[in-house]
Structures are given as structure tokens and as C-alpha cells.
Specification:
197 residues, 2 domains, mainly alpha
């Protein structure tokens, strides 16, 4: 069955069809929630809330990108959880690397040193993301981590294309500044050469 047929059957109350949609998007939703919330338990809760809300609201889905629609629900769920807890915790990179598939993965030729460097860089990027304001973090994750187009990010966030580009620019700048302030802690291969500045 294609996605449109699954959506149509879900609107008619077919739970099995909706479960197939969940299987297709659960990883994407979970990865967004994990990066937004920085906590595996909270990400699992937000993912579950997302699909429960989506199931209840599937009758109101008017077409367009189902992926954007479900990611918007996920972003709202994360926002609600952050508003309630108002505390940000950083997940260890070990957990992040084990539970996400959108970070560069090791291959058979990766040396232990390269693996350690990748882990260290991932830890700094994760910490840097956690320091961004929520609106900027969301667009950076959607665009730069999950690879959505600017138009898709605009659909997910409910913002204009100009607002998305502005938030993305500010978020990238803050992330770069965060990393530059801690440059001496970065693996040497990722440090800027002083002569090139």
C-alpha cells in the first residue's frame, strides 16, 4: 500500500494501516524528540504522544506532506514537554550514537582514533544544540540533521520561509560561536587554523 492509501484507511479507522504509518515515521519523530529534549525517556514519551495525537487527528489531515504534518505534531509535543519541565539535560553521545541513525556512522574501515574523534565531535554538537533557543534548535535539527528542505521546515514549524531562513542562520551562527568558544576542547582536526582566521 502506498502512503495515501494508508492515510485513507487510517481515516476510516483502520488501526493496522495507521500502525504502518507509525513504523515508517517513528524513527524520524524519535530523533527529532531526542535532539529537542535531550533525554531518552522524554523523547519516547513525546514520540508516543505524537502518534496518539496524530491518530486522534488523522480525520483532520487535509493532504499535503504527511511527514511535515506528523513532525509538526512532534515539535508541538516537544514544546509542551519543555514547557512543563523547563530543564534541559544533555544525553551522552554514547546513547545518541546507539539510538539515532542520522549521525555519520562508523564503517568497517574507521580507525579507533577516527571513531573517538567522531564521538567527541558529536558530544560537542549535541551540547551546542542544547544551548540554542528552542525555535532555532528546531529548525537546525530539521534542516541540518534530518535533511528537510526549507519548505518542509516551514510546514513543520508553521512559519514563513523567511522566518525559517532567519532562525536557521541565527541558530547556525550561535552553534558556530559555541564551538569556537570551546575550540581548544575540540578534536584538533576540527579546530580552525589560527592563520586562516
Amino acid at each position: 500500500m502506498d502512503e495515501q492509501e494508508l492515510i485513507s484507511r487510517s481515516k476510516d479507522g483502520d488501526v493496522d494501516a495507521f500502525n504502518l504509518l507509525v513504523e515508517q515515521y517513528q524513527r524520524l519523530v524519535y530523533n527529532l524528540a531526542l535532539r529537542m529534549l535531550g533525554n531518552t525517556e522524554a523523547a519516547e514519551d513525546a514520540s508516543q504522544d505524537t502518534f496518539l495525537s496524530a491518530y486522534k487527528a488523522i480525520g483532520k489531515f487535509r493532504g499535503g506532506s504527511f511527514k511535515s504534518w506528523v513532525l509538526r505534531i512532534a515539535a508541538n509535543s516537544c514544546h509542551d514537554k519543555q514547557r512543563v519541565s523547563r530543564r534541559y539535560r544533555i544525553v551522552s553521545l554514547d546513547t545518541l550514537l546507539l539510538e539515532t541513525d542520522d549521525l555519520p556512522q562508523a564503517n568497517n574501515t574507521e580507525s579507533p582514533e577516527d571513531y573517538a574523534l567522531r564521538q567527541e565531535l558529536g558530544r560537542f554538537l549535541s551540547e551546542g544544540l542544547s544551548h540554542l533557543p528552542e525555535d532555532q534548535r528546531l529548525v537546525v535539527i530539521l534542516s541540518d540533521v534530518q535533511g528537510l528542505s526549507y519548505d518542509e521546515v516551514a510546514q513543520v514549524t508553521g512559519c514563513s520561509l523567511g522566518t525559517v531562513k532567519s532562525r536557521l542562520n541565527r541558530g547556525r551562527t550561535r552553534l558556530r560561536d559555541f564551538l569556537l568558544q570551546r575550540e581548544e576542547l575540540l578534536p584538533s582536526k576540527f579546530r580552525l587554523n589560527k592563520e586562516k582566521r
